[in-house]
Write a structure and sequence with these properties.
CATH class of the domain at 31-65 and 116-301: Alpha Beta
Strand order of the largest sheet: 6-5-4-1-7-8-9
Oligomer: single chain
CATH architecture of the domain at 31-65 and 116-301: 3-Layer(aba) Sandwich
Radius of gyration: 24 Å
Largest sheet: 7 strands, parallel
Shape: globular
CATH topology of the domain at 31-65 and 116-301: Rossmann fold
Number of strands: 9
Number of helices: 11
Structural class: alpha/beta
Distance between the termini: 45 Å
Length: 329
């Protein structure tokens, strides 16, 4: 008995349009590569040479810094606030005697965090104005954060207010998260993989500023310090820990040296600062040394170039370097 003719088939999806494959375990390597190559393409197009990275708490955000009306977030990067009983006491609650001891303690912490928010904003603005005055064909020492609220927002905000480009390296989390509005739109990134996000934090950074924060801030700080300690970064990175009273009450790094867990010289990998001006002076000194090394290398290896960053986006790698390969349709 003859077999029935099969029904006509629809064309199979192109491999790079097959979401089932791309989102499968077998497609993981392509997702990882995309989180390397797509940011690389945008950084090149936007003429970004290097960065200064700000880390710090995301859980506090300033609604009205002057009156200390702050709100504690449900989780790091969350768009939802924490429950009312976990919020800091507001001035009117204190005046009416309605604030619990816990809410009063949180209110004191919120006031402290509002100061750090303003300090991060001020410092980012100072660095941005200085970096925009530097000669060269690419943007230097671009302020970069994790892209969320709190200290991250303050850093992007300070750069934005100075008229500079500023980068946000966001991470996709199980709870709601939105990039803060001060990030340069073409430099707004969202990552799935923490390790790819960390790669971009580390390998463009010439300086790191660590404001008070929690687990995530500690994680990023120690990762960068470990890379510097083990000389895995082929560059000098200036690490500034901001808010000595906060950090010295959280961790005692001298004990690590006293017990022999690190060498005494490892304590020279970072410096403390307590005011925006002090932090700026330390950062400027470290970055000026980097500038001098870079200028000496360019003088030896590159032809003279016109000063100033071009306004137009940089050409892609194919246009700039590649043979004339025909485009596909």
């Amino acid at each position: 008995m003859p077999r029935k003719s099969p029904d006509p088939l629809y064309p199979a999806p192109l491999a790079y349009e097959n979401r089932e494959f791309l989102e499968s375990p077998d497609g993981r390597v392509f997702r990882m590569l995309a989180e390397y190559q797509e940011p690389m393409t945008r950084f090149r197009r936007e003429r970004i040479q290097d960065t200064v990275v700000f880390f710090g708490s995301a859980r506090f955000r300033a609604l009205d810094v002057a009156s200390h009306e702050l709100e504690l977030l449900e989780n790091t990067g969350s768009a939802r606030p924490a429950p009312a009983e976990e919020q800091p006491a507001r001035p009117d609650e204190v005046e009416r005697g309605e604030a619990s001891a816990q809410k009063l303690r949180l209110a004191e912490a919120a006031v402290e965090m509002s100061r750090y928010y303003e300090d991060a904003r001020t410092l980012a603005g100072m660095l941005s104005r200085w970096s925009m005055s530097l000669p060269g064909r690419r943007h230097r020492y671009v302020i970069t954060s994790g892209g969320g609220p709190g200290i991250m927002e303050a850093a992007n905000r300070g750069a934005y207010e100075a008229g500079a480009k500023t980068i946000g390296l966001n991470i996709k989390l199980p709870f709601e998260q939105m990039p803060n509005p001060y990030i340069t739109p073409d430099l707004n990134f969202e990552f799935h993989y923490f390790f790819m996000r960390k790669f971009w934090f580390a390998y463009l950074a010439k300086a790191l500023v660590v404001f008070p924060g929690g687990f995530g801030t500690l994680d990023e700080m120690f990762e960068l310090l470990t890379l510097a300690q083990t000389q895995k970064l082929a560059k000098k990175i200036t690490v500034l820990i901001y808010g000595s009273s906060y950090w010295k009450s959280v961790i005692d790094l001298d004990i690590l040296a006293d017990k022999g867990a690190i060498s005494r010289k490892d304590l020279e990998l970072f410096q403390f600062a307590d005011t925006p001006q002090q932090a700026f002076d330390l950062l400027k000194a470290g970055l000026t040394e980097d500038l001098q090394l870079q200028a000496a290398w360019e003088k030896e290896h590159l032809p003279p170039q016109a000063e100033g960053v071009p306004a137009a986006p940089a050409p892609d790698a194919q246009t700039l370097l590649g043979p004339d390969i025909a485009k596909t349709r």
